[in-house]
Amino acid sequence: MDNDISILIDEYMEAQRKRLQNNTSGQLYYQELLLKKLFSRFEFELPEEWDISYFLTTLFIEGHLAITDTALGVLPLRCSYTGINVFNRPTDIIIANPVLGSLRRKIDDDSILLKIQYDYNGVMPIINRYAGLLAECDSSISVNLRNSKVSMIAKASNKAQAKTLEAIFDTIDKGKPAVIVSADAVNQEDMWYMPVKNSFVANDIQELKRSIISEFLTEIGINNTNLDKRERLTDDEVNANNDEVLANIQHWYDNISDGIEKANKLFNLNLSVKIREFGGDQNGEPTEPNLVL
């Protein structure tokens, strides 16, 4: 009996390990997907020699980057910050670059610390939250689909018969149309069939995924009232949604545009940022993309 319990524990732990592994890969998939959606909200005008992918990933994931003059010209670079002024804001930038080496710059003097949030942090807390929820949904759908394939509980009179039944179920699960066994291998009275249809919730979870993605779109400033199932939305409801979707995006835009304005003045650049707007009208009809702010 103790050996059987030990085997069950080992099987459970292996299943948990595989589940966590699947969730990790699923979360990484959704992290990349959601980051792309967030990046698409902004349209930057940058010098041709600047790497836009490096710029976006550093700014949004790290939450900040340095713009400073170097031996290779004015560049955006990953950095850390140090020092403190009377308002508890950093005063200096430290850059450790594999090509340029170590650099130290004074903020607003010979460098600009471009940030997206008041606390200099990035967007990964938001990304991770929704990526984790979506990965959990996929995991639940996968389990639900698998459980709907074989919906049977069987009672075995001994260990050998239990192994035989396991082999039968494994063979059926792999898609083999027929399994031949001895007459005493299976007792129909010792089998219970589960009502699969009653426990099938994959469709509901798929709808939940759409709701989670809709909530994420609201977080990053994409109007998504067209996802509401109601036939008509009042003007107040539409306006309330419009105000909600602008909460984060306006904060990010204000910080980025403030830093870009400073960089333009300090280094005589022509950087700019706009918010790209996608969405639908009150009746859910798609609208042409346009730039706001």
Which features would summarize this protein structure in a list?
293 residues; alpha+beta; 3-stranded antiparallel beta sheet; 7 helices; 49% helix; elongated; disordered C terminus
Low-confidence stretches: 226-231, 281-293
Strands ordered across the widest β-sheet: 1-10-11
Give the tally of β-strands: 11
The proportion of strand residues reads: 15-25%
User: Number of DSSP helices?
Assistant: 7
Q: Helical proportion? A: 40-55%
Find the structural class using helix and strand composition.
Answer: alpha+beta
Radius of gyration: 28 Å
Q: What's the order of the H and E elements?
A: HEHEEEEEEHEHEHHHEE
The description of the largest β-sheet is: 3 strands, antiparallel
Mean pLDDT: 80
Distance between the termini: 70 Å
- Please tell me what the overall shape is: elongated
Question: What's this entry about, in short?
Answer:
The chain has 293 residues and is of the alpha+beta class.
Structure description:
The chain has helices spanning 2-39, 52-62, 124-147, 159-173, 196-199, 202-219, 235-267, and strands at 42-45, 64-70, 73-77, 80-82, 92-97, 101-106, 111-115, 152-154, 191-193, 272-277, 290-292. The chain is built from 7 helices and 11 strands. The model is unreliable at 226-231 and 281-293 (pLDDT under 50). β2 (64-70) and β3 form a beta hairpin. With 293 residues, the protein is α+β, with helices and mostly antiparallel strands. It is elongated. It starts with a helix and ends with a strand. The strands form 4 sheets. The protein has a 3-stranded antiparallel beta sheet with strand order 1-10-11, covered by helices on one side. Strands 3-2-7 form a 3-stranded antiparallel beta sheet. A 3-stranded antiparallel beta sheet has the order 4-5-6, with no helix packed on it. α1 packs across α3 (124-147) and α3 runs antiparallel to α6 (202-219).
